[in-house]
Amino acid sequence: MVRSFRGEASPGMWRREAGTVVRRAVALPDRAVAPFAITAGFHIPRVPTEWAPHAHSLHELVWVRGGTLTSRVEDRVFTVSEGHGLWMPAGVVHGGRATAGAHFHDAFFAPDRTPFAFAFGEPKAIAMTPLLESLLAHLSRTDLDAAARARAESVVFDVLQPSERQFALQLPNDTRIDAIAEALLEDPGDCRSLEEWARWLGISDRTVTRAFRHSTGLSFAQWRQMLRVHRALTLLSEGFDVTTVSETLGYAQPSTFITAFRRVMGTTPGAFFDAVDGSPEGVRNPVSRVQNS
After folding, report:
1. How far lies 233's CA from each of 11, 14, 71, 215, 217, in Å?
2. Treating both helix axes as pointing N-terminal to C-terminal, what angle do 146-159 and 130-139 enclose, rounded to 10 degrees?
């Protein structure tokens, strides 16, 4: 079944789905009640949920199961899929969005008790290994004595590592081409050529080319391809099949989309989600419902 992707515009991230609930911030743990180095928990948003830009006095690690999380941090958009988390240092202003039904996990770290804080001075994608997830689930318990909690926290500090893939989309932040970026965030399937975008803005195509390369490090075509793969991760995790996603993102045929996805992610959509879920190659993924290709 094809579902609508259309909704209210949300500057700096993907078009907001109809029915999205906008919240001010994730509630912080009460340090007077839980004076721990790490406090963890989770909940399941029943509808698409967005958090307005905010900052925390604690470091935050967020990750999801059965969906994706998108976060806007200044000029970057992070897309966090299963198997990865996002580390957000204390004081960094960020907004976020979780897909409906995703198991949304978060853990807060007291800066004065976090020994590796100097190594994570900026947002980072984190490898959510089974060990790390198990430890954080263990720390979400309220019946741990101080010694047991200290032992688990020390292991978390040992195993928490950045992901090999830092999947962040750099936005231009260049007034000459920002309108192109915002239009493509609203509709990644817009297939206008670089020359057509240049005419739309009333500037030369050479100016557009140079502006994208200078501000993002990518050509216009590479940047749009990266943006589409970011959006594809969200759509695929929500259960849309490869054919529907390829059409939505403006590809003429699924094989072209799969090639673009492989170029950015190093694997096909089906294999990518199977690697997270542990399903055998060629078996329909029960979490993402992505048909392998």
Report:
1. 19, 12, 13, 24, 22
2. 150
Query: How far is it, in rounded angstroms, from Cα 196 to Cα 267?
Result: 31
Distance (Å, rounded) from C-alpha 80 to C-alpha 233?
9
Regarding beta strands 76-80 and 103-109, do their DSSP bridges make them parallel or antiparallel, or are they unpaired? unpaired
| Residue 140 per-residue DSSP state | T
Angle at which helices 254-265 and 269-277 cross, to 10°: 50
- Tokens 């992707």 correspond to 5
Torsion of CA 69, 73, 78, 79, to 10 degrees: 20
**In terms of DSSP H, where are the helices of 140-177?**
146-159
What's the number of CA atoms in the CB half-sphere (13 Å) around residue 272?
A: 24
- Residue-wise pLDDT tens for the chain (293 aa)? 222 333 343 445 556 666 676 667 666 665 544 578 999 987 777 767 788 899 999 999 999 888 888 899 989 999 988 889 999 999 999 998 887 778 889 999 999 889 876 567 899 999 999 999 999 999 999 899 999 999 999 999 999 999 888 889 999 999 999 999 999 999 999 999 999 999 999 999 999 999 999 999 999 999 999 999 999 998 998 889 999 999 999 999 999 999 999 999 989 998 887 766 553 333 333 333 344 44
What are the backbone dihedrals phi and psi of residue 247, each rounded to the nearest 5 degrees, phi first?
Answer: -65, -45
